[in-house]
Write a structure and sequence with these properties.
The chain has about 190 residues and is mainly beta. It has one domain (about 30-175): Superoxide dismutase, copper/zinc binding domain (Immunoglobulin-like), CATH 2.60.40. Helix content is about 0%, strand content about 30%. The chain has no helices and nine strands. The radius of gyration is 15 Å and the shape is globular.
Length: about 190
């Protein structure tokens, strides 16, 4: 299925959507393969520079996750050593802010909305991450240290610094630029 069209003002589509729609993008892209603490692949995230607005759009497709609500963040290291993913570092925070969307001194650039996993354990969502880029710069997801996408064991309370009481890291994927830029993203 082709996934390009205007997204509009929608920032997040939650749940098991069969066909999230990609906004226009400028060709810059990155990907992450998510693994669980046992090292098994449980998902993929594709990142594209948003052409018509600020930030990066992420398509997350994941499976074999327990139903529930989980914190999800971009972390400041491009490493994901299982089983505990401590090598992923802290939240990506190039501007030195406090954690959380509800924190008046926040959020971190890597703070993301909570992830809702339905009963079938599959998710297919789009998230716009407004304060990051795939281009060069202090807020680049592809900077010298790299970055990673992390799913935590608990929901994010969106205010407690530094991590929103989100608990252990249960899945992780290193965000990497693909060998070539892509012009079309296909659904699985």
């Amino acid at each position: 299925m082709k996934r390009f069209a205007m997204l509009g003002a929608v920032t997040l589509v939650l749940g098991a959507c069969s066909s999230p729609i990609w906004p226009p993008f400028d060709g810059l892209a990155a990907r992450a393969e998510l693994i669980n603490s046992s090292g098994y692949k449980i998902g993929e995230a594709t990142f594209a520079e948003n052409k018509d607005g600020p930030g990066v759009v992420m398509l997350l497709q994941a499976w074999d996750l327990p139903p529930g609500v989980y914190a999800m963040h971009i972390h400041d290291s491009g490493m994901c050593d299982s089983p505990d993913f401590q090598t992923s570092g802290g939240h990506f925070n190039p501007y030195g802010r406090k954690h959380g969307f509800k924190n008046p001194e926040g959020p971190h650039a890597g703070d993301l909305p909570n992830l809702v996993i339905p009963l079938d354990g599959k998710v297919d969502i789009l998230v716009t991450i407004r304060e990051v880029t795939l281009k060069d710069g202090v807020n680049s997801l592809l900077g010298p240290r790299g970055t990673s996408l992390v799913i935590h064991a608990n929901p994010d309370d969106e205010v407690t610094d530094p991590g929103g009481n989100s608990g252990a890291k249960i899945a992780c994927g290193v965000i990497r630029a693909p060998a070539t830029e892509f012009t079309e993203i296909e659904a699985k």
